[in-house]
């Protein structure tokens, strides 16, 4: 009898720890101890199988709209509910950031950390945005958009340099927190530097704008493809691609935009603060000195309701031939990007970033390059729509590929060097 009781209690305690046999699920847990992660967990409701959370970023390091974490303990085929509310942390103006920046219509998730998919549409309930999903795995990553970390950038430039003899994995510099800033350097053939157009592509001066890095990657992938036009561009130009400029805020899951003491994209002054800005300004300055700063592209994601569009300086502030060349490039890029299938909505009307846009407008990178560049320099900021069903890794990379093809089409009409 004694023995039977012991056996029965052993079985009971074993059953209690083997939930699949008695119907209970493993506890849901949240993990954010990895590169790029950001979350503040408010509540995990085991009965409802829901996680309530807000973005975890520190406003001193930029707008706290980015979130990215892993949920473990999922029973395959169960529905998990994510309840998101905006960060309550206050900004410089003592108010929290408007919730819409943190709340994509569809969240992004992955069960392997590589293939990123959209959830169904979230439902807004008061201060909350509710996403439900059935991941069919014990663990899933969830994020504001498809993550792209400094490690992703390092892997991308390494992979490109392995598959193409014309690509070199390089480093722009090391950051203030001593992280490497990966850069892809592309050139093909024997043409000397002075006979090559200079093309500069940088993304992610704002760390939360992950889509812009995927656009930069798509640019590089097209550039190193078998396409004849891509080969022409490699042979006639020297191209620099930096998929993540602000590696420190990207790695730590902070927003970057409006960070203290300067937003990266308002740091293009005589004395920049961030090491990435110092290094980029020096290299771009070198291209300007050599008279071959031909195309400068700064990649971003816009406000939640915006389509894709270019930011430009008002005409009155520029001289010819810069204005006509810029307008021609915009036409070529728009013609291609607006035809992408499935659709990536784009406006053919650029927005203006002049004196009225921001007090530090002169220190915005694309403006700085326009104002300090060569007479023929085309320098633009491209904002790629993020809050849209096709704002996926595939959609973003298609934008990059078409942008690169537009650069080729544009340079092919310029006088040979
Ligand atoms: Zn931005």
Structural class: alpha/beta
Low-confidence stretches: 4-22
Major sheet attributes = 8 strands, mixed
Fraction of residues in β-strands: 15-25%
Description of the molecule:
The strands form three sheets. An eight-stranded mixed β-sheet has the order 11-12-14-13-15-18-16-17, sandwiched between helices. Strands 1-4-10-6-7 form a five-stranded antiparallel β-sheet, with no helix packed on it. The chain has two domains: 16-143, Sandwich (Immunoglobulin-like), CATH 2.60.40; 150-411, Aminopeptidase (3-Layer(aba) Sandwich). It contains ten helices and 18 strands. With 417 residues, it is of the alpha/beta class. It has helices spanning 2-16, 19-22, 150-163, 210-223, 228-236, 247-251, 275-289, 322-337, 365-372, 393-411; strands at residues 29-31, 40-45, 50-54, 68-72, 80-85, 106-110, 117-121, 123-125, 128-133, 139-143, 167-174, 180-186, 197-203, 237-242, 293-300, 309-312, 351-352, 378-383. Mean pLDDT is 94; it is low at 4-22. Helix 5 crosses helix 10 and helix 8 packs across helix 10. It is globular, with a radius of gyration of 24 Å. Zinc ion binds next to loops.
């Amino acid at each position: 009898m004694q023995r039977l009781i012991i056996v029965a209690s052993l079985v009971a305690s074993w059953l209690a720890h083997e939930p699949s046999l008695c119907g209970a699920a493993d506890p849901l847990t949240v993990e954010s101890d990895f590169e790029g992660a950001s979350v503040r967990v408010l509540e995990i409701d085991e009965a409802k199988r829901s996680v309530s959370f807000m973005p975890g970023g520190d406003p001193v390091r930029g707008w706290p709209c980015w979130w990215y974490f892993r949920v473990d303990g999922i029973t395959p085929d169960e529905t998990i509910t994510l309840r998101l509310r905006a960060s309550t942390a206050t900004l410089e103006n003592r108010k929290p950031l408007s919730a819409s920046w943190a709340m994509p219509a569809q969240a992004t998730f992955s069960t392997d950390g590589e293939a990123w998919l959209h959830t169904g549409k979230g439902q807004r309930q008061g201060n909350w945005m509710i996403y439900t999903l059935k991941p069919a795995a014990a663990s899933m990553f969830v994020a504001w958009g498809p993550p792209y970390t400094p490690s992703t950038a390092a892997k991308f430039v390494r992979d490109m340099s392995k598959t193409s003899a014309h690509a070199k994995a390089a480093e722009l510099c090391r950051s203030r927190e001593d992280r490497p800033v990966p850069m892809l350097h592309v050139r093909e053939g024997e043409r000397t530097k002075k006979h090559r157009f200079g093309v500069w592509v940088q993304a992610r001066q704002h760390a939360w704008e992950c889509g812009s890095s995927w656009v930069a990657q798509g640019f590089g992938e097209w550039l190193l493809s078998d396409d004849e036009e891509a080969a022409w561009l490699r042979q006639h130009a020297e191209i620099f691609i930096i998929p993540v400029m602000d590696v420190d805020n990207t790695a730590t899951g902070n927003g970057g935009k409006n960070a203290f003491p300067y937003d990266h994209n308002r740091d293009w002054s005589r004395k920049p603060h961030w090491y990435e800005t110092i290094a980029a300004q020096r290299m771009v300055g070198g291209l300007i000195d050599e008279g071959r700063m031909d195309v400068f592209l700064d990649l971003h994601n816009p406000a939640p309701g915006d389509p894709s569009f270019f930011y430009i300086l008002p005409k009155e502030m520029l001289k010819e031939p810069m204005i006509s060349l810029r307008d021609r490039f915009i036409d070529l890029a728009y013609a291609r990007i607006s035809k992408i299938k499935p659709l990536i909505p784009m406006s053919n009307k650029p927005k203006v970033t002049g004196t009225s846009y921001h007090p530090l407008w002169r220190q915005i990178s694309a403006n700085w390059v326009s104002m300090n560049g060569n007479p023929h320099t085309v320098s633009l900021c491209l904002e790629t729509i993020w809050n849209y069903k096709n704002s996926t890794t595939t959609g973003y990379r298609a934008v990059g590929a078409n942008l690169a093809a537009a650069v080729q089409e544009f340079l092919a009409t310029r006088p040979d060097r």
